[in-house]
Design goal:
Layout: E1 14-15, E2 25-30, H1 34-42, E3 47-55, H2 64-68, E4 75-82, H3 89-99, E5 107-108, E6 111-112, E7 119-122, H4 125-144, E8 158-161, E9 165-167, H5 175-178
Helix pairs in contact: 1-3, 3-4
């Protein structure tokens, strides 16, 4: 957490609304460092907005530094608001599984720790049912060898009801689209297929 001079260290982070604006739905995922996975969802047609934040922890208003310590119980997460008429939750699950290795516990790539655990956090029974079906499909593909690039052969992503979601500090929001660590902005255009550089 010592890479950034900016960011709020005072009051901590704010709780996001538990409901989407009228006519839209919320989806919440965790898949390692939140910068890259947010950009992937920013690019999805039908996703109206995205944010990165912290969820499934036991401390209110956590800061990035506190979450990185692993002591608050939170995971780095992304939340998107989407229009079901344009994109299904099933399609969002596909984006999630394309961006993560669902077989590594508390790790994505070189990022290790409970704050990097993967999760699908459902907001209603329909999302839960869709996720359970997708988990079963991915497990079958892992067993058959059809799912490529995974370290293991079983999904270890946690599937839990969506809980309190704290919006991360401003400097993390849309971080890669704004330039990331290297100051090289990456496209958040809808449908963009450019490879995502995880840290910028």
């Amino acid at each position: 957490g010592g890479l950034f001079g900016g960011g709020s260290t005072g009051a901590g982070t704010k709780l996001a609304p538990a409901e989407a604006p009228q006519g839209l739905k919320l989806a919440t995922f965790a898949g390692g460092c939140f910068w890259g996975i947010e950009l992937a969802f920013q690019r999805v047609p039908g996703v109206v907005s995205t944010s990165v934040g912290y969820t499934q922890g036991n401390v209110p208003n956590p800061t990035y530094e506190a979450v990185c310590s692993g002591r608050t119980g939170h995971t780095e997460a992304i939340q998107c608001t989407y229009d079901e008429k344009e994109v299904s939750y099933d399609q969002l699950l596909d984006v999630f599984f394309e961006r993560t290795d669902p077989t590594t516990l508390n790790r994505q790539g070189n990022d290790r720790g409970t704050q990097y655990r993967s999760g699908v956090y459902y907001h209603d029974d329909a999302q839960k049912a869709a996720a359970e079906k997708k988990f079963a499909e991915i497990n079958a593909k892992l067993q058959s060898g059809e799912f490529k690039g995974a370290a293991g052969n079983k999904v270890v992503v946690e599937l839990l009801p969506a809980g309190d979601y704290y919006i991360a500090e401003d400097y993390h929001q849309q971080y890669l689209a704004k330039g990331g660590r290297m100051g090289r902005a990456q496209s958040a255009a809808k449908g963009c297929k450019d490879p995502i550089r995880c840290y910028g």
